[in-house]
Amino acid sequence: MKKIYKIIQISVLLPFFGLMACSSDDSYAPIESNPLVELIIPADFPSFNSAFYNNQPTKFGVELGKKLFFDPRLSRDNTIACATCHIQASAYADQQKQGVGIEGKVGLRNVPPIQNLAFMQYYNWDGSKRQLENQVIVPLITPEEMHSSIVEVIGKIQEDLDYQKLFQQAFGDKQITDQRIYQSIAQYEYTLISANSKYDQVQRKETVFTPKEQYGYEVFQVKCASCHSGTLFTDQTFRNIGFPINRDSNEAGRARVTGDLKDYMSFRVPSLRNIEFTAPYGSFGQFQTLKEVLDYMDQGVLWADNLDPIFKENENKLPLTTEEKEALIVFMQTLSDGNFIGK
Questions:
Q1: Residues contacting 149, CB < 8 A, separation 6+
Q2: Which of 47, 89, 141 is nearest to 276 (CA)?
Q3: Strand partners for 267
Q4: Is the peptide bond before 280 cis (omega within 30 degrees of 0)?
Q5: Model pLDDT for residues 231-262, shown as the tens digit of each residue
Q6: Which residue has the higher pLDDT, 14 or 160?
């Protein structure tokens, strides 16, 4: 990945002293033997989110975070790791309609992919967390996911010599704390950057779209780009687009966070990067294929007071011809990053 980005001579190497200058109580300066990881980002990517600068990835922080990410001991019964549901081949999502946790318990929502999180302003479908470090605790304590506690996790790993060594290397001593666990997992997740799809290669003028991909791109600009905008292919807003409703009494979309009925069944606009690998689609896996999604939008979505204007102004539809749907799917496949998913 680095070589590919260096070819285009675009590099963001975060200064060592940037962390030391931060005033946040949660920040820390990496020790001399634990250097910051060099992250090389395309020029057209957005800026890192503000929380990232308080917890920049370090060599051993990332190594520790990755070990924790793949450790099933984070769950109450030692059967579920973060990586159980966030699978690399699926762009760190999975193929389930809704997340499945310990004892086969089914969660409320579809597992979102983990990619380009350093640039995101909100996490979870309803945007309940603004900082990745604070999001880490959610699956750990949720009954339908890991159903554990940070105290229990620390108790399981504190005598592990490998962990003791990594905490020493990452933080300067062997003390295992909740904040260090959250920080290190977030550091690992910050490094999961997807930016080498065919679309990116076209932008770098290394290749060109086929005629059908080009047509799909043109249709996308007219029909989709108002929501799926920018290089992340999301404007990071929350919208009700009239998808079939999850009737679970716990579901209210963004309104669960804000308490505002204007946000009822509004969800974070997902990034379309690697969408080829993240089926099923929708907040609780309502659609098995991209064609099903496009057919549903074309045929007519559910009406709601807060339905997004792009549908309200078009009789609750996103009109698409068969040719446009086919071309859109072909274009969206150019957002697939084989290196990122391990192919």
A1: 140, 141
A2: 89
A3: 239
A4: yes
A5: 999 999 999 999 999 999 999 999 999 999 99
A6: 160
Contacts of 109 (CB under 8 A, 6+ apart): 98, 99, 125, 246, 251, 283, 284
- Residue 165 reports pLDDT greater than 60: yes
- Under DSSP, the state recorded for 250 is T
Q: How far is CA 37 from CA 77, 78, 95, 106, 214, in A?
A: 33, 30, 31, 36, 36
For the residues 121-136, what does the mean pLDDT come to?
A: 97
Q: With contact defined as beta carbons under 8 Å apart, do 192 and 92 qualify?
A: yes
Q: Which ranges of the chain does DSSP label H, i.e. alpha helix?
A: 2-7, 17-20, 59-69, 82-85, 132-135, 137-141, 150-157, 161-171, 178-190, 198-203, 211-223, 255-258, 290-299, 309-312, 322-333, 338-341
Average pLDDT, the chain: 92
| pTM listed for this prediction | 0.90
pLDDT tens for 274-300 read 999 999 999 999 999 999 999 999 999
Please report, to the nearest 10 degrees, the dihedral formed by the alpha carbons of residues 165, 167, 168, 171 taken in order. Answer: 160
Whose tokens are 């929380």? That residue is: 51
| Residues whose CB is less than 8 angstroms from the CB of residue 212 and which lie 6 or more positions away in sequence, other chains included | 326, 327, 330
Q: Can you tell me whether residue 235 is helix, strand or coil?
A: coil
What tokens appear for 123 in the block?
A: 């996490």
Q: How far apart are CA 125 and CA 266, in angstroms?
A: 9
- Asked if 274 contacts 335 with a C-beta cutoff of 8 angstroms, the reply is yes
What is the C-alpha separation between 297 and 332, in angstroms, rounded? 16
